[in-house]
Design a protein that fits this description.
The chain is α/β, with parallel strands linked by helices and about 325 residues long. It has helices at about 10-20, 55-65, 80-85, 85-105, 140-160, 190-200, 225-240, 240-245, 260-275, 295-305, 310-330, and strands at about 1-5, 25-30, 45-50, 70, 110-115, 130, 165-170, 170-175, 205-210, 220, 225, 250-255, 260, 280, 295. The strands form 5 sheets. Strands 3-2-1-4-5-7-12 form a 7-stranded parallel sheet, with helices on both faces. The longest helix is centred in the first third of the chain and has 21 residues, at about 85-105.
Length: about 325
């Protein structure tokens, strides 16, 4: 079995590629390296370029006519950046994505796994949990690009053009346990990445938003290990036809089913490192929300999948990758 992974040189896409290799699936990587890393493509079939480049996508399928499934991880994902640059986010995440769909259908690739996001949900105000039918509320241009593209995919699937599984990620942490790949960004904006940076720098961690209606006022998230996310993609590739047989467009949450506040994440981080982490309370970031965590019954039912790695394992693997990162990523 062979799959095309668009954005396969990024954090999540490269980890999915590793999981595919470990399970006997051959990944073919397409990435423009805007945020992805060439080092993450070593030893793998790699095409450098953009998902909107029709001639390049045609060449990939001419070289690999046995590709039947594509995984679309190609996107810009930083919420504050999307607030500052909405046009860029709509161009990259929606306009180019539509062109990519046209290129796939022209090459008779009918199966698509889409990397969507839990940022599109409006959380249940009682417990902040959401399932696939929960109401949506997009509070940033980034979230709106994901929700809008899901609308496109649902319409395309209803027309019989493609069969689609949208996997709504919650908050990925950790790294490939073998440390082949990990978070490539040296100045991350998400909570755990910031914690690791300030832990090594000896500076305080900024708690961005402490007035949310959660149990301790900080945002609540569902921190899922990236290796668990990758395993879910392998299962979706293997079971794609069965999952979409009766419904050509399926949405599946990928999370742990447990909510962790940012203050609780700080405590877990301190437990893993054995050192205190000083915090300083600051205002909410533009586009941020109180957050949500997943109800994951459908992932268990359709994929036979559930998250197996703990929050502490995710923190520990993130710390291990931090120590390895600068020797693995050797180019500017």
């Amino acid at each position: 079995m062979k799959v095309l992974i668009a954005g396969g040189a990024g954090f999540i896409g490269s980890t999915i590629a590793s999981a595919c290799i470990d399970d006997g699936i051959t990944p073919v990587i397409l990435d423009n390296l805007a945020t992805g890393r060439r080092e993450f493509t070593e030893g793998r079939t790699f095409y450098e370029g953009d998902i909107c480049d029709g001639a390049l996508v045609d060449r990939i399928f001419a070289d690999h006519p046995d590709i039947t499934t594509a995984i679309d991880c190609a996107a810009l994902i930083v919420v504050p950046d999307s607030v500052a640059n909405p046009l860029g986010y709509y161009r990259e995440n929606v306009s180019k994505g539509i062109q990519f769909l046209e290129h796939l259908t022209r090459n008779n690739c009918r199966n698509l796994l889409f990397s969507s996001s839990a940022s599109i949900y409006r959380a249940d105000p009682e417990d902040f949990s959401v399932d696939e039918n929960s109401p949506l509320e997009t509070l940033s241009p980034y979230a709106r690009t994901k929700a809008l593209f899901e609308t496109v995919l649902a319409d395309v699937a209803a027309a019989g053009t493609l069969d689609v599984i949208s996997l709504r990620y919650f908050n990925p942490i950790g790294a490939d346990p073998l440390l082949r790949t990990g978070l490539q960004i040296r100045t991350p904006t998400h909570a755990l990445g910031k914690m690791i940076d300030v832990h090594h720098a000896g500076s305080p961690f900024p708690l961005t938003g402490t007035d949310y209606p959660t149990r301790d006022g900080s945002g609540i998230r569902d921190y899922v290990h990236v290796w668990d996310l990758a395993a879910a993609h392998v299962k979706a590739v293997q079971q794609f036809t069965a999952i979409t047989r009766d419904e050509p467009y399926r949405v599946i949450n990928l999370g742990t089913g447990r909510g962790t506040t940012v203050r609780e994440l700080v405590t877990a981080f301190e437990n893993v490192t054995g050192a205190p982490l000083t915090t300083v309370e600051t205002d909410r970031r533009p586009g941020d929300s109180a957050g949500a965590y997943a109800r994951v019954d459908l992932a268990q039912e359709l994929l036979g999948w559930k998250a197996r790695h703990s929050l502490e394992e995710g923190i520990a693997d993130s710390l291990r990758w931090y120590e390895r990162r600068d020797t693995t990523l050797t180019t500017d």
